[in-house]
Amino acid sequence: MSQVTSKPKFTVGDVVRHQRYDYRGVVVGYDETCQASDEWYASNRTQSDREQPWYHVLVHGSTHSTYVAEENLTSDDCGEQIVHPLVKSFFGQFRKGRYIARAE
Predict the structure, then answer these.
(1) Would you state the pLDDT for residue 1?
(2) How far apart are CA 69 and CA 48, in angstroms?
(3) What pLDDT shows up at residue 2?
(4) Rounded to an integer, what distance in angstroms lies between the CA atom of residue 24 and that of residue 54?
(5) Which of 16, 30, 39, 91 has the fewest beta carbons closer than 10 A?
(6) Phi, psi of 71 (to 5 degrees)
(7) How far apart are CA 36 and CA 54, in angstroms?
(8) 33 alpha carbon, distance to own chain's centre
(9) Rounded to whole angstroms, how far apart are CA atoms 7 and 17?
């Protein structure tokens, strides 16, 4: 069993920006450590440490999502919503710069 190095900095509904690739997105889930396969990890360009939180992010202005290490993300405080076809599937409202999850 792996040891978690830190608690997640971001949570579901947070709007983030990738520091290296400069895309914006919204967090829809996270894992305390990288849960991707070894094959996927080996093909990942950034090779971030697996022993940190990793986030599932809907990418603004596209139809895809990413799986990204916490060290590559920063809070995005521009206050603008994320344009992605799945946003309404996960969230009901956008308030004060973050998304509010839909009621179950």
Answers:
(1) 41
(2) 6
(3) 46
(4) 16
(5) 39
(6) -60, -20
(7) 10
(8) 13
(9) 19
- Region 68-78: mean pLDDT is 96
In order of start, what are the domains of the chain with their CATH numbers?
Answer: 15-101 (2.30.30)
Kindly report the CA angle at 25 between 19 and 16, in degrees rounded to 5?
50
The conformation of residue 17, written as its DSSP 8-state character, comes to E
What does the alpha-carbon distance between residue 81 and residue 97 come to, in Å, rounded to a whole number?
8
DSSP line for 35-85: -S-HHHHHH-SS---SSS-EEEEEETTSS-EEEEEGGGEEE--S-PPP--T
Residue for token pair 């990942």: 44
Q: What is the CA radius of gyration of the chain?
A: 14
Asked if residue 9 has pLDDT above 80, the reply is yes
